[in-house]
Design goal:
5-stranded antiparallel β-sheet, 11-stranded mixed β-sheet, alpha+beta
Length: 825
């Protein structure tokens, strides 16, 4: 099988212009401690040697004289009781031992002074760094309350800081780590640029109000405002009926996320007069106005004086969907204001949004001191607009900052030919063992064939959606998080085949790890025998679209992560590069991987700010959920599409409104599980490329994991599990910070653990995301203390934290490349 590999010309890199000098300063200040500790260790050895010599002499003398006082002396020597030993007046020579003990006390006293001085110097570094305007500009996005305390922290010398001031240390350390040692986009901490400076930027700073929050406020208002209810036409949805009840699937908010809204499917019912049900059934799919509905109720003397309340209830559960034409793209606040103006509705909302829009523009260019005031005023307006919406905290605004042309130092050669064809060949085959999409594709096709055979069935068919697509889908979601999960009742033989191969690989790999100890692993040798056993018909005909996040170090590619492709991540930044759509290379990529494959893009947004971008791709598909369907009315809808069983691939074939084989893309979410059912299924029907192989599954069963390579690529850094019981015992047994520092450093030495590492936490249960990696150097007192504060008191029957080697080392400018590949076979 020959792969076709395409690299998206639009690739970006993420980095920072905030230096990591703060760490190297702290490291330098800590070196004197290490020198003193080394002296103490040497002295301890000398004391032990001298102690053994003295004890031998005492035992020798005791064997001759049997004097009981010698036993007391032996105990005092063994326990190094210097005060008592100084009082000894016998003929056993203790002078050398006493001199060594005195020297030890002096060095310990010196260590205390040096440790205290080092901590103070490190705190001075924190104070100096937090004065950086770019850091201060970003603090609001972490914690608004802390923002108020920074000026106090800066206003007085560190030796005058009280306990409350010192509590800021950990926050500042976290902030500095994220700004100089991590690459996730976050306000001014991490900037984004075009790789090789291929595309010029149009805007260096962009602020967006959280679209999920904005839409919640907007929709809540117009679904309850009497003027809006009377003016905005509504479309009657399709629904079911049982006696005098309407049954209807609607979408509600997902409580776990503040980035998306109304994506979770929910079955609702509403009891209402059967004449109303008949009226609504007669108008399904049609547009009506409140006046029409009110007139019908009055004609039949139904719900007298409560006509608007009944209408409002039907709108709230979305049996009646208001035909809103607000385009969900950048500048959403302005689009909503324009819509409200055009319809002359919700005047209070219009005025408040106008105020927010002005403040949002001000925030974009504001100096540090003004930011808090603007933020507070925006939040106050939001509270006035809706008290029923839960607090969005620091997720009110999103801010993206780009490298200016003078700051852009990326070279296009940095990303050329970093991954070989054999890498893609083996990895894409191997990932099938853990891929959820491929299992869904075969199972859905098998269910379809059993029910419909070779029929072509419209995607508007409720039986198709409920009995083939939705009924079994929930049994596949556990695959995303649990590598031991098996859907035992699957009727597609491919599901069992892939599960068997996957489980055999898990046993083999654990055994391989045991036999190879801690040496580096060549992953190609491990996976090749298994990828070869996947039948060719399963390997063939797949499209992988993958986004690689990687760094470069000493000729190696350090792979940080693999996400879905199809510009799900890249789309967040597209609008900031002015000449992207005029690029010949980019147009060719889009033609080859979208138009030639007859892709249709679903443009309905559910608030996720990462997916906000102008759509220039001309083939769009209306989802018939949400509100976007009323904007792109000239495009086909999901109900215009159909599916059929494809004998050659044993999968379903999606047909567009013209009967041509089609595919569906969605560039607006990184979490497909949190999308409406019909969209989730459509996306699962096409290969994505997300990596569901979890190396931590194996780490949890071991004490450590060696570095894992594939050719020049470091797939996984070396890792070690932390024994929390051991560390908490050290905390309990250490009388002060210095003792804990010494005991902790000694523990890491004894356990042969690295003293510089990234601290990570396993994702637990239903958590959407885990703790951000935290850089630690336990030789630096401030960072060691930060490490202890993170893990202190934590208890777990299974591993909770692990540490990871620091690769690449902090020697070059922090830079991570984000490159998308499309692979067809």
């Amino acid at each position: 099988m020959e792969l076709t590999i395409s690299q998206n010309p639009f690739s970006i890199y993420r980095g920072t212009n905030i230096s990591d000098d703060w760490y190297f300063k702290m490291k330098e200040y800590s070196e004197e401690i290490q020198i003193v500790v080394a002296k103490l260790n040497e002295l301890q050895l000398a004391i032990e040697e001298e102690k053994d010599l003295v004890v031998c002499k005492i035992e020798e003398k005791f064997s001759q004289e049997k004097e009981s006082k010698l036993l007391n002396l032996k105990r005092d020597v063994h326990n190094l009781r210097r005060v008592r030993l100084q009082k000894y007046s016998g003929d056993i020579c203790l002078q050398q031992l006493l001199a060594l003990l005195k020297q030890q006390e002096e060095i310990k006293l010196s260590l205390t002074e040096i440790y205290t001085e080092t901590v103070q110097k490190s705190r001075a570094v924190l104070q100096e760094e937090i004065a950086n305007e770019q850091l201060k500009k970003t603090i609001l996005f972490f914690n608004r309350t802390i923002y108020k305390n920074v000026e106090k922290y800066l206003s007085k010398p560190i030796d005058q800081h009280n306990k409350k001031d010192k509590k800021l240390d950990n926050f500042i350390i976290n902030l500095l780590m994220r700004s100089s040692m991590k690459t996730s986009p976050f306000s001014y901490l991490t900037k984004t640029g075009s790789t090789g400076n291929m595309f010029s930027i149009t805007k260096e700073v962009n602020i967006e109000l959280n679209h999920a929050l904005l839409f919640r406020i907007f929709l809540e208002t117009i679904r309850s405002d009497h003027g809006a209810l009377k003016k905005i036409p509504v479309q009657v949805s399709k629904f079911g009926q049982r006696d005098s009840k309407i049954f209807f699937v609607t979408q509600e908010n997902v409580p776990q996320s503040r980035k998306i809204y109304e994506t979770s499917d929910k079955l609702v019912e509403m009891k209402i007069d059967e004449k109303v049900i008949d009226y609504l059934k007669e108008h399904q799919g049609q547009t009506i106005n409140y006046e029409d509905f009110e007139q019908f109720l009055k004609q039949h003397t139904l719900y007298s004086n409560y006509e608007l309340e009944v209408f409002k209830k039907l709108v709230s559960i979305k049996v009646l969907v208001q035909k809103i034409t607000v385009v969900a793209e950048r500048g959403l606040v302005k689009h909503i204001i324009e819509y409200l103006n055009d319809n002359q509705i919700c005047e209070t909302l219009r005025e408040k949004l106008q105020s927010i829009d002005e403040k949002q523009d001000e925030f974009e260019i504001a100096e540090v001191g003004e930011r808090l005031t603007i933020w507070q005023s925006i939040e106050e307006v939001i509270k006035q607009l809706s008290e029923s919406i839960p607090s969005f905290g620091t997720e009110i605004l999103y801010e993206d900052v780009l490298f200016g042309s003078k700051e852009n130092k990326s070279n296009i050669d940095d990303i050329k030919d970093k991954f070989s064809p054999s890498f893609f060949q083996e990895m894409t085959s191997f990932l099938l063992l853990f891929d959820v999409n491929i299992r869904v594709q075969y199972e859905v096709a098998a269910l379809y064939r059993e029910k419909y055979g070779n029929e072509v069935v419209s995607l508007s068919d409720s039986n198709l959606l409920n009995q083939v697509f939705f009924e079994k889908l929930r049994y596949f979601f556990p695959y995303f998080q649990d590598m031991d999960y098996r859907y035992a009742d699957a009727i597609a033989p491919e599901v069992k085949l892939l599960d068997d191969l996957r489980d055999e690989f898990k046993v083999f790999f654990l055994d391989y790890l045991e036999k190879n100890g801690s040496s580096e692993i060549d992953f190609r040798k491990v996976i090749e025998p298994f990828s070869k056993r996947i039948p060719d018909y399963i390997k063939c005909g797949n499209e992988f679209s993958m986004t690689f996040f990687y760094q470069l170090f000493q000729g190696k590619v350090i792979l940080n992560d693999i996400y879905d492709g199809q510009e799900k991540f890249l789309s967040r930044f597209k609008d900031f590069f002015g000449d992207l759509e005029n690029s010949k290379e980019y147009k060719e990529y889009v033609k080859k991987n979208y138009y030639d494959k007859n892709y249709y893009e679903v443009t309905e947004l559910f608030g996720f700010n990462g997916g906000i971008h102008d759509r220039v791709y001309t083939q769009k598909l209306n989802l018939e959920l949400g509100n976007q369907r009323f904007s792109d009315t000239e495009h086909p809808s999901v109900s215009d599409f159909s599916v059929m069983y494809d004998q050659s691939s044993s999968k379903l074939k999606v047909l567009d409104h013209e009967g041509q084989k089609a595919r569906v893309a969605y560039k607006s979410s990184l979490v497909p599980v949190f999308l409406p059912g019909v969209l989730s299924v459509l996306l699962l029907l096409f290969q994505s490329g997300r990596i569901n192989f979890d190396i931590n599954y194996f780490l949890k069963k071991r004490t450590e994991m060696p570095r894992i390579n594939f050719e020049n690529v470091v797939l996984y850094r070396k890792k070690w599990n932390l024994q929390l019981a051991d560390l908490n015992k050290l905390v309990e047994q250490s009388e002060d910070d210095i003792a804990l520092y010494l005991n902790g450093n000694e523990y890491f030495k004894e356990q042969e653990l690295p003293k510089t590492f990234f601290l990570k936490k396993y994702r637990l249960g239903e958590e959407i995301s885990a703790m951000k990696p935290m850089f630690i150097d336990i030789k630096v007192p401030a960072l060691f203390k930060h490490f202890i504060s993170e893990i202190k008191g934590e208890q777990s029957l299974e591993p909770l934290y692990y540490i990871e080697e620091v690769v690449p080392k902090f020697e070059n400018e922090l830079r991570e490349y984000v490159v998308e590949y499309t692979i067809d076979n």
